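Example record used in the benchmark description.
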Amino acid sequence: MLRLSRARHRRSTFRNIMLPHQWSAFKRAARLEKLDRIPMALIIDSPWMPGYLGRKHLDYYLDPELWFQSNLQIMREYADIIFVPSWWMEYGMAAEPSILGAKIKFWPDNTPSECHRLHRLEDIDQISDYDVEADGFAALTLHRIRMQKQRILDHGYILPMVTARGPLCTAGFVRGTTNFMMDLVEDPEGAHRLIDLCTRVVIDWMKAQQKAMGDTVEGFLLLDDIVGFISKRHYIEFAHPYLKRICDAFPQDWVKVYHNDAKIEACLDHLPDAGFHVLNWGKQPDIREVKRRVGQRMCLMGNVNPLEIAVRGTPGEVRAATLDVLEGSGGEGIILSVGGGVSPGMPRDNILAMRAALDEFHAGRLAII
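Model output (structure tokens):
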């Protein structure tokens, strides 16, 4: 009898796990198809999850069982919310810079930080040989993917996306952001060499993840806030060709998500031409402005204020901000989210307030119909 009860429990659990169906909705939204319901998706990773669950960051990174149970708990607690990229096997922002020799510092209660080691651009040849399967925290991440993949699939989930920090972000980690910004002006040829190297690393790194994850992968999430630090002229020269190269390196039918919660005004009009389908940006500019400029060419993933509202606001303030975003979107071409990733400290009540506001928005639309 106990065995039968457990079997029924497993079947009930699997029925409640909707991630494959949610991924289908995410893909359709990314392709600007008309949906009956706007999806809600949140980018979650180690800045938010350990603190939310009351666990140490080092335990989250180093204890495979704690990592698995942490992700499973969040997936089940918010079964009707899409989490991007889903089961993120990451060591904070350590993987990409560690491939190219950056020193990584780990802390008990915070995400790791990187210390640049490329003090002179002319030394780039000394780090140009790399192996994403063996170098730094990339190697450990790939091993964790292989360790946990079947267990994740057995629980009814999929691994739909690979992830990477973008080429300018990685260059900033390796060179130091201030030094890299100066290089764009003072040594543009050297800056191009570094960005080219980082672009190759990003492509190889995501392809290695795809190989480890298997045939459930149908998209990627690329995060590059440093693009938001440069002018339009510098974007056209130093960012756009490399972002396009990354998009072109993967299948045309993949969903390609770009995250940048720094400034996007200089690059906004060009991002669709790079090959991205979904834009996740910060609290500014207003969704109405973003919709006007690229709303017919990209799906917008956003953009409830992630800190002042989502973390520090009341549920009532979250509700109002969420409804404003939804109304500003016109109810189409949007995946509801915060502006960027979920910030450390965002409480359960505010996540539920976003979800409730989405329900309220849909109820209002049905009433009009």
